[in-house]
Structure formats: structure tokens, C-alpha cells
């Protein structure tokens, strides 16, 4: 029971190898960067396929 009280009262902080704190606002930013990259990649790939079809 003492452990549960201690966990409930303590504030847990995570850090990335001590370089910076991992906070809740960082998670969407880290997830958003690869998604944005993939959208741009798919759009440019689609554009190349359209240009190849028009060339024939």
C-alpha cells in the first residue's frame, strides 16, 4: 500500500538521455513529423506517375 501512495504523490519525469525532458507536448510533434514526411513523399510520387502517363 505504501508503494501506491508514493507513486500517486510523486511526479514522474522522463528525459531523453538527459538531453531534454520528454513532456506530453513532445509526443504529437514526434508523431506528426513522420506523417508529414510521408504525405509529401506520397504526393511527389503520385505526381511522377501522372507525368509518366501523360508522356506516353
Can I get a quick summary?
This protein has 56 residues and is mainly alpha-helical. 68% of the residues lie in helices and 7% in strands. The N and C termini lie far apart (74 Å).
Jot down its keywords.
rod-shaped, mainly alpha, 2 strands, 56 residues, 68% helix
Give a structural overview:
There is one protein chain. This protein has two helices and two strands. It is mostly helical and 56 residues long. The chain has a domain of 31 residues. Strands 1-2 form a two-stranded antiparallel sheet. It is rod-shaped, with a radius of gyration of 22 Å. Keywords: Membrane, Transmembrane, Transmembrane helix.
Largest sheet entry: 2 strands, antiparallel
Q: Roughly how many Å is the radius of gyration?
A: 22 Å
The number of E-state strands comes to 2
Based on secondary structure, the structural category is: mainly alpha
**Strand adjacency order, main sheet:** 1-2
Q: Mean pLDDT across all residues, rounded?
A: 79
Based on Cα principal axes, name the global outline. Answer: rod-shaped
Q: How are helices and strands ordered from N to C?
A: HEEH
**DSSP strand content:** 5-15%
Calculate the terminal CA-CA distance, rounded to whole Å. 74 Å
Low-confidence stretches: none
Helix content: 55-70%
Number of helices: 2
Amino acid at each position: 500500500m505504501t508503494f501506491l501512495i508514493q507513486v500517486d504523490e510523486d511526479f514522474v519525469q522522463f528525459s531523453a538521455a538527459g538531453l531534454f525532458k520528454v513532456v506530453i507536448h513532445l509526443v504529437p510533434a514526434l508523431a506528426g513529423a513522420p506523417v508529414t514526411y510521408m504525405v509529401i513523399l506520397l504526393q511527389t510520387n503520385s505526381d511522377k506517375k501522372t507525368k509518366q502517363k501523360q508522356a506516353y
